[in-house]
Each structure stands twice: as C-alpha cells, then as structure tokens.
Amino acid sequence: MAAALAGSRGKGKKKWSKGKAREKTQNKVLYDQEAYERMCKEIPKMKLITASAIVERLKVNAALARATIRELEQKGDIKVVSKHHAQLIYTRAISAE
After folding, report:
1. Is 83 helix (H, G, I), strand (E, B) or coil?
2. CA 26 to chain centre
3. What is residue 4's DSSP assignment?
4. Nearest in space to 51 (alpha carbons), one of 65, 39, 38, 64
5. How many CA atoms lie within 13 A of 70 on its CB side?
6. Cβ contact 57:90 at 8 Å
7. Which of 13, 40, 53, 64 has the fewest CB atoms in 10 Å of its CB?
8. Which residues are 80's β-sheet partners?
9. How far is the C-alpha of 67 from the C-alpha of 63, rounded, in Å?
10. pTM given for the model
11. What is the DSSP letter of 85?
C-alpha cells in the first residue's frame, strides 16, 4: 500500500494537450466551366463514386458533390450500387447492359 502511494506522489498533475487543429479547406461551391468539363469527363470513369471521392478529386464542397451525383445519375452516366440516407454509392454505367 505504501509503495502504491509513493509511486503516484512524484508524477504531478497531468497537463491538457492543445489538440490538433485541422486545416480549413477552401473547396469550390460552384463549378466554373473548366471544372464542369473535368467533372463530366472524370467522374463517369471512376469505379467507386461517392460524394467524398468527388470532394477529394475535384476540391468541391459536399453539397455540390451530391448535386453532381444526382445530375450524372439522371443523364445515365452512373448507376446506383447502394443508396443509404447518409451515403450514396455509385459506379460507372456500362453501356453493354
């Protein structure tokens, strides 16, 4: 018992860490002509299409990525794999089907 008390006496009080601050991203909220053409060319060729994949690839915000997915689905360029209230998963549409 005395050894346990002696061990905790010398360490002192724990200090709080500052934590890691994430860098704020400056993603686009609207497509310019160049980015729109790039989106129309690149996204339908991806194997796995999610909002987060589009955000990473094109540096746009998530709302614009979800709108992009809806537009490409209506055009028939991509097809749905799984639809969940939090995550939309698509893949490229193969014209042979």
Report:
1. strand
2. 14
3. H
4. 65
5. 6
6. no
7. 13
8. 90
9. 6
10. 0.69
11. S
CATH number of 26-97: 1.10.10.10
DSSP-assigned states of every residue in 33-75:
HHHHHHHHHHGGG-SSB-HHHHHHHH-B-HHHHHHHHHHHHHH
What is the residue whose two structure tokens read 């018992």? Answer: 1
Q: What is the largest CA-CA distance in the chain?
A: 78
CA 25 vs CA 11, 29, 59, 96: distances in Å: 40, 12, 9, 40
**Token pair belonging to 42:** 């690149």
Q: Which two tokens stand for residue 17?
A: 């860490």
In a 13 Å sphere around the CA of 10, the CA atoms on its Cβ side amount to 4
